[in-house]
Amino acid sequence: MCLGIPGLVVESLAAAGGLDYALVEFAGLRRRVCVSCTPDVRPGEYVIVHAGIAISRLDVEEAERVLEHLRAMGETDDWDRSLPEPAESVHEIP
Fold this sequence. Notes:
Layout: E1 5-16, E2 19-26, E3 29-34, E4 46-50, E5 53-58, H1 60-73
Antiparallel strand pairs: 1-2, 1-4, 2-3, 4-5
């Protein structure tokens, strides 16, 4: 089954190959994610990521609800102990 997973945008990254990217955190694990489908997303916001692409923005309450559903389905494999809290150091790279 393919799932979209909520993650916290930590910082904007430089565009590459005509696509926009951001560093997104999933319960402590950080990955480079394409954010071209969500061009107005900013550090400190949550996105749903599917196959390395942020497909939508969502608020923290919705992110928690999605994770609860994934936990109930047994689809988290313990990587989701909690959503990462937005850090004071979250910033955008020029």
